[in-house]
Each structure stands twice: as C-alpha cells, then as structure tokens.
Amino acid sequence: MRRRIAPVLLTLVVVALGITALTARPGREAPGRTADFVVLVGVAGLRWEDVDPQTTPTLWRMAQDGSIGSLSVRSAHRPTCPVDGWLTLGAGSYAAWNGSRQAGACPPAQVTVEQPDGIGANLPDQESVVVHNQERLPWGAMPGALPESVRCSVAVGPGAAVAAARPFGRVDRYAPTLPADPAGLLGSCVLSIVDLGTISGEDPAARASAAREADTRLARVLAARPPRSLVLVAGVSDTDVPSRLHVAVADGPGWEHGWLTSASTGREGYLQLVDLAPTALTALGRPMPERLFLGRPAESVGGRPADLAAAIAEPADADREAAAQRRVADWFFTLLAGAQVLLAVAVLPLLRRARRHAGPYGPEPVSRRVVAVVELLLVAAALAVPAALLADAVPWWRGEHAGVYFAGVTVLLLIAATAVVRLMPGYAGTLGPLGAVAGLTTLTVGLDVLTGARLQLNGVVGYSALEGGRYAGLGTVGLGVFLAGALLSAGWLAQRVRRSWRPPVMVAVGGVAVLVVGSAYLGSDPIGAIALTAGLSVAAAISAGGWLTISRLAWATMAGLALTIGFAVLDLRRPAAERGSLGRFLAAVGDGTGGLTVHRSSTANFETLVNSPLTVLALAGALLVWFALLQPWGGLKRLFGIYPAMRAAMAGTAVAAVIGGVLAGDALDVAGAAAALVVPMAALAALRVLDHSTDRTLPDPARQRDEGPGGTGDGSDDDSGGGPDDDGPDRPAPDGAGVDAARTPDPAVEPAAATTPPSPRAPGRGNGTDGPPAGTDAGERAAAGRSSTEATAS
Hints:
Blueprint: H1 2-23, E1 37-44, H2 57-65, E2 67-72, H3 82-91, E3 121-122, H4 126-136, H5 145-148, E4 153-156, H6 158-164, E5 170-171, E6 173-175, H7 183-186, E7 191-198, H8 204-223, E8 229-234, E9 246-251, E10 258-262, E11 270-272, H9 276-284, E12 298-301, H10 308-354, H11 368-382, H12 384-391, H13 402-423, H14 432-450, H15 476-494, H16 502-518, H17 526-542, H18 550-572, H19 581-590, H20 594-611, H21 613-629, H22 636-642, H23 644-663, H24 669-691, H25 701-707, H26 739-743, H27 778-784, H28 788-793
Parallel strand pairs: 1-7, 1-8, 2-10, 2-11, 4-6, 4-7
Antiparallel strand pairs: 2-9, 3-5, 8-9, 10-12
C-alpha cells in the first residue's frame, strides 16, 4: 500500500513546489500617466562611449537629471539597420523593412516619403511593408501600431516618418528637417518622433563630430519641448556588425536620477527597443493596441550612482563586455566540444582494458598513472563550464586581447577547481569525483542566480543582452549544467541513505532546484522549471530501484502536465500585460495567433540545432553513452546496478534537458550543456567500477544471518539491479577499519574463505584475492561479493 501511495504523494509535492515557484512574483505597481506630451528622439548608432561633457553637453545634462539605461535594439533583421530600428519603434514589436539585403550589412535605406499637401506625408511602400511583416516574418508585427494608438502624431526626418506612418502609410504631420524653432510643431500633437541623424563607423573623430551635431539639434528640441512632457532619447539601431548596446535616456516628471528598466528585461539598467512604444502610450495614459506589443512599459528605479560619470561607465562597460562575449563564446564552445570528443575517444581503450582478469591471461592493465591523468582530465572537462562562468567575475573584456585574458583566467580557475576535487577526502571512491563535481557546479550556478545572475549576463557561458532573448535569471547553458548538477547531487545524496528514503531525498533536493529555476525572483525560467519537474519525477520514481516502467513514466508525465496546467490557469487569470510566456501563448491560441509562436519556436529549434556547437556535445555524449558506456564492457550498466539512485539521476537529467531545450526553442543546447557535465563523470565512474569488477569479498555476516541461505529474509524482491540491500550500497567498514578488516570473515558465523593462489599480475595492480583497494566504495564491495556470472551480466 505504501509503495502505491508514495508516487502519488511525491508527484503532488513536486507539482506544489513548481507552482509555488512559478506563481510567486515580485510586486510591481503598474506605471501610470506621467506626461501630457511624449517626444521620442532617435539617433541611429548612438552608444554610451559617444557621450561625454565636452562632445555632448546637452545629452550629458539630460542624463544627469533623468534616468539612463542600455538599449538592446533587436528587430526582425540581424543586424538592426536604421530603417529596421525605426520600423520596430513604431510597431512595438520586432519588425523589418522588406526588400533583399546582404546578410550582415546595412545598406542605405531607400525610403520614399511623399508630401502631397505640405502638412503630412505618405509612405507609398508602407502597405507592402505591412504585408511582409504580417505574412512572411514570424513575429506578426503591425508597423504603425504606435501612431495608430493616438489621435495625432508628428514626425521630423525620414527615419521618424517610418516610425510615425500609420499602417496605410499616412504620417499626420511631417517636417523633413528640424525647424529652427520647433515649439509649434512639437506642441501640435501628443506624440512626436524626431530623427536627429546617424552616428556610424569606428573612427573616433568621425563619431565625435556626428555626436556633436546630434547634440546641437537635441538642444533645440529640449528648448522647445511642450510643458509636462516626457523626452526619450534612444540609439534606435546599429549601423554595422557586430551589434552593440545603445543609449537610452528618459527625462520628465517621475523619471529623475534613476535606472531604466522594464518587465521585458527584468534587469535594472536594461531596456529593449520594443519597450519604447508601450512606454510612450503608458506615459500618455492611452490604452494599448488590441494586439499587444512585445515590449513592456519602462520605469525608473533607484540605485544609480550620484556621480554621472560612474553611472555611465556601467552601461559603457556592459557594451564592451557584450561585444567581446560574442567573439569569445563561439570559439570557447567549439573548443569545449572538440576537447570532449577527443577525451571520449581517449577513454574508449581504457574502458576496454579496465576490467581486471583474475587468471594469468588477459590484456595488460593500463598504467595507474595514465588512468589517474585521464580521470583528472575528465574532472576538468566536467568543470569547464562552471570555470568559464566564474571567469566573468574578472573584467577580462577590458583588455586589448580579451580572448587571451579570458582563456588564461578560465584555465587558472579550472586548475584550481580540479585540484579542489582531487584533494577532497572522498576522491578515491567510485562516486567521490562525481558528487564533488556535481556539488561544485550546483553551488556555482546557484550562488550566481541567488545574487542576481550577474555572471551570466553578457557572460561567455551566459546570455547576451545583444540577442534580446533574456536579461535576467538562468540562461540556456546555465539551465543545462544546473539541472544536471542538482539531479546528480540529489542522486549522490540519495544513494547514501536507506532505499525507502531515497525518493524523499531526491524530491527534497530537486524541489529546491525547481524553486531556484522557476522563481521570478531567481532563475525566472518557467519552461525550465516544468522540464526539471518532469525529470525530477522520473528520478524520484526509479531512485529506489527498478527501471522506468510505463506507470512510472506516466507519473512523471502527469507531474509535468499538472504543473503546466496549474501555472497556465493562474497565469491566464493575470492582466494581459502581466502574463508570462505560457499565458501569452495560450491567449494567442485563443485568438487564433498561436501559430506564430509555434512557427518561431520550430524555426529557432532548427537554427540552433544546425548552428550550435552544443549540438555536437549532446550528440557526442549520446553516442559515447550508447555505443560504449552502455555496452557490456562499458561499465555503466554495472554502475547503474550498484547505484540505482545515480541511474535515476542521469535518467531524470536526460528527460529534463531534452524537454527544456525543445520547449524553449533551444533544440539540444540544454542537453549539450548537461552532457558536458554528466558524460565525463559517467565515464569516470564507469572506469572505477570496472577496475574493481573482479574483486572478491566474503558475504556480510549480518546480512547472511538476516537472509539465511535462501536469499532475502523478508521475501521482498531486490529491484536495484543486484547491488545494494535495503540499506543501500554504501556499507562502509567501521571507523578505523580498512578494507581488509571489512573483508575479514567472522569465524563464529561463517567458515574461512578458501585461499586462491596469486596470479602473475603486475605489481600494485591487484588480483583475484587482493580485494578492493583502500578507499573503495562499499557499493563496489557489495557487488564484488556476487558470483562472476552476476558481475558479467551487470
């Protein structure tokens, strides 16, 4: 009866933890009306490095009085060229100008602006642009949604005309250049959009000259601004590759001396280009359009340094880090994938020769030194991602040779972490390195998330603000290594307790991980929390022994579905502007636009699958496990038989990683990050299990008395793969007793063991009568006591 109820109770606990994590959110007051007029000022290519008191004094004073932030200018085209940026500004969603363009370049925009009446203007190409965005691009943006939401709007300059054109192409009021006194023009409508030009190139003198001209025009705009107005200055686009972070400044009532942020970024000091349209409407107190913007209204939060130079240094430094991150991340993951593939090839002959033979014949064993070196390399490979994450605590991107500095810092951290694992007391045990590596990884990523995920933002193994996908919480790589580390740590701990306590231990440790991943205060990844819940349910179901049966898989599926449905119901009850990704998707399904989300997800999965180095890691890990480790000579089956909780943890990791990657549009990236940790540790543990596969021990006297000559005393079946008893495999010898003492029979209980003549083996390698060497896990001693037929079958 207890066995039937346990899965139900565990499932309920996991679901309750997941829903708690997903629904608890920071309290936010909805931004209200703060202005009677809004003036959006755009300067394509404007970066924080262009702003200083001498070159841009007007913008400097505006930033001193207002709120500032870094602007991500993501659009539906990469890179975001000026015409794409202006179009995205007016759409409030990722949009792009139609027409063929060379990839990775920004040719001059061919925008035709007609002025038939001298008051307004008309864009004859607007209708084709709308069709292009609605039918051919996956975001379904509506160009002109912002001006369509107000009664009247003003545009100054061709870029502003693109943003202010209604869906049918009409611009209400238009001036090709900024008048000497624009007060009358800016006061004629509640929304004005002004194009102050473009800053392009990398020549400092040319950029300074362009910035000075734009600042001069900005001074005229500020002098003529209407009363009680909000002025937003933004670097609305890139002008070349690679993409960069740009300037965002807000000045007006309620926007004094703060950082800009929004619900779409969840990070102080960061804003998206798509946030500017809802910010303008919210400040004016106007309702949002029927089809919601992708962005969220911006707001000002405190915590900015009083010294403006120190405050501006932060977004400028973030821009440099983000630019360097993109260059370094590509070769880091390529090298990591190549190194792990080479290491997997090197492990194959060791696996073949790891099983010792008791007789005089058989392959010569591999040198202990070689095995020790390979084991350390496996540990280092598993710790590569956590070491790279910690490397971002050092400002390596500020140097001239950023990639070299990053490599040096990462290697030093990797050596230190590997040394810590090597010097830990339990390193000699079969599961010692695995537990240490899993614990260090979980601790590293977990502490980063608990402290605001600052190492992941613009980090090499984190996420880039330039991509516009995530600004806070756990990234794709962080999710993969965290869920793998958490589940392996849970399995390692569960293996050390009685069998009946293993599922609760798995749920306790995994439940904390679900809270960390899914909480809006921490990981802020509901899809990751749902995936981890499914993997945790699988792990808890088989942690006490047995394989993944249909009923256990059904319970795991029910847990994931229950969590998803519970969160979806609660998310749909929120106001539309406060819903998460799942709630927005279900609402889109209800109004018939959910196909766009499915199309975006499937496209993202395919592009990631064929372009990401993590795909190589995932596939290489799967091939090594299937064609080597799970073979009779590979040792993983024996490991799973002796340590069922570790089998459960690895199975749960596979389930969670695949589900999390596919649902989030990351294909095999999550699985690849998890494989970078799990596969090297599985290979190391398999090597150690095979090394002691032919060791012999005498039966445990206490167990022999309990079981009698016929097997288990209580008649229960042992579903753990023939390894441990109800107390688990970890049955260490008494304190102070070595392996020989654990192997010594009790004369009062059993006869002495027959002595086997020693075989001519290499010195120090051990033979059939040597038994396990000092430090061998008790789980191996339990398995070694089985017959040779059982050992071979494992």
